Amino acid sequence: MPSRNREKTRYPGVYYVIGTGADGKPERVYYIVYRRDGKLIEEKAGYQGRDDMTEARAARLRAERIDGKSDSNKIRRNKIKAEREADDNRWTLSKLWTEYKKSKVDFKGIKTDESRFKRYLEVPFGHKEPDEIAPLDVDRVRVMMLKSKSPQTVKNTLELFRRIINFGVKMHLCSPLPFSIEFPKPDNHKTEDLTPVEMERLFKAIAEDTNIQAAGIMKAALFTGMRRGEIFKLKWSDLDFDKGFIFIQDPKGGKDQRIPMNEAARQLFLDHPRTGSEFVFPGRNGGLRKDVKHQTARIKRRAGLPEDFRALHGLRHVYASMLASSGQVDIYTLQKLLTHKSPQMTQRYAHLRDDALKRAAEVAGNLFANIEKQNTSIDVENPKTA
To answer: Which residue in 5, 83, 116, 231 is deepest, having the highest Cβ count within 10 Å?
Structure first.
C-alpha cells in the first residue's frame, strides 16, 4: 500500500494520494478499502486523469466489490494469468501455422503459403483450435474468396488450411477436423491460345511499346514457354549461347532444369540490352524483378487480346499449344520443354496433338480416296471385255 500521505474523501473507505501523472504533473491516485469474506482488502481504484477516476466512482467500485458484483484486482490478475496459461496450452491455427512454418524452412513455397495464411486464414481461424472450427466457418471463407479470387487460388488456400491441421494431428498437437472440406473445382485443363490475327497484333503492340524490359519478358514467355518467376530470376550466366541451352534455377518443379534455346529466343537475348545487372530482365536498382503486370496489361490492351487472357502465363500456353498442334512434338518432349513435374499437367495439350495427327491422317485418307476415285473413273471409261 502507498507510503505517501493519505487524504480522506467524503466517502468511507475511499482515499487518495498524490502521485505523478503520465504528463509528469501531480495527479490524484484513488484507493479503496473494504472487507470481503472476512479479509481486509486495500487496492488501487485508478488515476484521476488517465483512468478518469473520481472519489464518487471509487465509492461505487468499492460497493460493487463488497456486494461481490466485481472481482478484486488480485482476483482479476489471477484470472488473466490463468487465461494466458490456458491459451499457451491451446493449439490454435496460428500456433499450428508457426510450428508448421518452422518445419518447412527449406520449402520454397513457404512465402506464398505465408501470404495466403495472413490474407485469408489468420483472421477467421487463427484464434481457434481445429475442433472449434465448424463447416459453416470454412464455407463462408470459401464463398467469400470465390467472389474475387479464382477457384485455383481458393483451392490452394483451403489445401494449406488442411495441411496445417494435418501437421498438427501428425505431431499430436490437435484433433483432426470432424468434417471434410469442400474444395472448388478449378478448370486446370483450360488452355489459352491466340489466333494468327491476335498474334500479329500482339507482336505489333510489343514492337511499339516503350518499355523494353516488359516487351522482352513477353517475348521470352512466348519463345521459351518459361514461367513468370523463372523469367524474372533468369540471369545472363544462365544463358549458354555456345551450346544453345537456358538453365532454369529453382523452377516450380523443384529441380534445376535446362531447356534448348531456339533461334527466336537466342536472337531475343542477343539483342536485349545489358544494364550491368546480373539479371536479364532486372527490377529496380538492378535487383530481382517483382512484377510487370501493369506494363504487360498495357501491351495486352493495345493488342486487343481477350480480357481473360493472362499476359505471361497465357503466352506459355500459346507456346505449348503451338508445339502440340504442330504434330511434330510428342507429349513426353513437351513435358520436358515445359518443365512439368508430372505428365498429367502436360496432358491438357494432348487433344491438340491428336487433332494434328487426325489432320495428317485425313490428308493420307484424301490422297488414297483420290487415287481410288481416279482408278474407278478409268475402269468406267475403259471397261474390260470378257
So the answer is: 231
